[in-house]
Specification:
The complex is a heterodimer of chains A (about 140) and B (about 250). With about 140 residues, chain A is mainly α. Chain A folds into two domains: about 80 residues, no CATH class; about 60 residues, no CATH class. Chain A is about 65% helix and about 0% strand. Chain A is globular and about 50 Å long. The mean pLDDT of chain B is about 95. In chain B, strand 1 and strand 2 form a beta hairpin. Chain B is built from nine helices and two strands, in the order ααααααββααα. Chain B has a domain of about 130 residues. By secondary structure, chain B is mostly helical. Chain B has a two-stranded antiparallel ribbon with strand order 1-2. Classes of the chains: A mainly alpha (about 140), B mainly alpha (about 250). Chains A and B meet through helix 1, helix 2, helix 3, helix 4 and helix 8 of A and helix 6, helix 7, helix 8 and helix 9 of B.
């Protein structure tokens, strides 16, 4: 979605299908590091950390670790409280949800699907990108 | 009290991050709203225990966690129900269910106690994850501080949206007037802990050093100044972590 507002092209399926080129600079290195932090293979973590440091530097390692830490926290907050996806986000992201197959996640049940929401998503689809660019400018 | 420090870290850690973690670690050991400092530290200890718990590992591999019976490999004398909360949230958050939550509260843990425990658990997971990422051993747990919990339940908390009551922005008044920083809207993930307002305050205080301030999240062009990663790089990592955690939100 950030790519849509900035005019750059990213492939979100890189988040669900490892090996897919995301279009984000050093994306593969960052994804490999995130996977290793969540995993249990210490050697793999050591390798991916070293690779990230080599390609992006120590400050990027710290930033990346902080992002992993944040979402290890936020994912659990969401899943342990049963909060639904915010309505505006749900409507705006229907096609992204479908493309990434997110309905297969058990926590998707916390966001009831509504006919009205699906209709709204279809109606705004043609104008979603300019709407998001406008919203981005208004939020600055 | 043991202070948290990154002086011995293998890489230089930004001052704002180090300060945020120090604040979080101090809060961990202090009396909370519903749990004592000692109980909060014990919940953090059980959060760590989940990583090597044989029951948790067996449940993670099973088709359904409910199919595997047994006792957790515990490190504290906390009630079993609290130990289960810590271990389940730490090890298998994707398969938590409303049914499981209702069983938790039926076993004597109030919704407010649950929310505060959740805050302690996720903060422990988060800071431990950061240390793991940069190649540092987990910080020693802090020494519990004496004192009684505050026992404040916000009058504006209402049920119906999620498993736990939430405080809407329009209901953030009186003692909760500062809760969402004056914003007209607050995303559900920020409101999720609002049954224990101090945990929302701490969550909001920690966000800017780790990611972006919550009020700037909807602006995809915003990237905190001085960071080594672009916003797109941050979001890619966030997306991959959330997919691995199977978090729909």
């Amino acid at each position: 979605m950030s790519g849509e507002t900035s005019g750059e092209r990213y492939d979100l399926t890189a988040a669900t299908q490892p090996g897919t080129e995301s279009g984000v600079a050093h994306g593969a290195v960052l994804i490999a590091f995130a996977e290793a932090v969540l995993g249990s293979d210490g050697d793999r973590l050591h390798q991916t950390r070293a690779h990230l440091q080599l390609e992006l530097g120590n400050a990027a390692l710290v930033d990346a670790a902080a992002i992993v830490a944040t979402f290890e926290q936020m994912d659990r907050i969401a899943d342990a409280t049963g909060i639904p996806l915010d309505a505006v986000v749900d409507i705006a992201s229907q096609d992204v949800q479908a493309e990434l197959g997110l309905a297969s996640f058990a926590s998707s049940h916390n966001t009831p699907s509504s006919a009205l929401g699906r209709l709204a998503a279809r109606l705004i689809a043609p104008i979603r990108t300019p709407m998001m660019r406008l919203a981005s400018r208004l939020l600055r | 009290m043991m202070a948290i420090s990154y002086a011995a870290a293998p890489v230089a850690v930004r001052d704002d991050l180090a300060a945020a973690h120090a604040q979080a670690w101090t809060a961990l050991a202090a009396p909370g709203t519903w749990w004592t400092g000692a109980e909060r530290v014990a919940i953090a200890a059980e959060t760590r225990a989940a990583r090597d718990c044989k029951l948790c590992l067996a449940r993670k591999q099973a088709l359904s966690p409910a199919a595997v019976a047994g006792a957790h490999d515990r490190r504290t004398t906390l009630p079993e129900a609290v130990v289960d909360v810590a271990h389940r949230i730490a090890s298998d958050p994707a398969r938590l269910s409303r049914r499981w939550f209702e069983d938790v509260t039926a076993n004597g843990i109030s919704d407010a106690h649950y929310v505060e425990a959740l805050a302690v658990i996720v903060r422990t997971v988060s800071i431990d994850s950061f240390c793991r990422g940069i190649g540092l051993a987990p910080h020693a747990l802090p020494e519990a501080q004496p004192g009684e919990p505050a026992r404040h339940r916000p009058v504006g908390a209402k049920g119906g949206e999620a498993w736990v009551p939430l405080v809407a922005v329009s209901d953030a008044t009186g003692p909760e007037a500062d809760l969402y920083g004056g914003a007209r809207r607050a995303p559900n993930v920020v409101r999720a802990l609002s049954l224990v307002p101090d945990e929302v305050r701490l969550l909001r205080a920690l966000a800017p050093s780790h990611y972006v301030p919550f009020e700037r999240v909807p602006d995809p062009s915003f990237a905190p100044p001085g960071r080594a990663l672009s916003r797109a790089q941050m979001e890619l990592i966030a997306a991959r972590v959330s997919v691995l955690n199977e978090c729909f939100y």
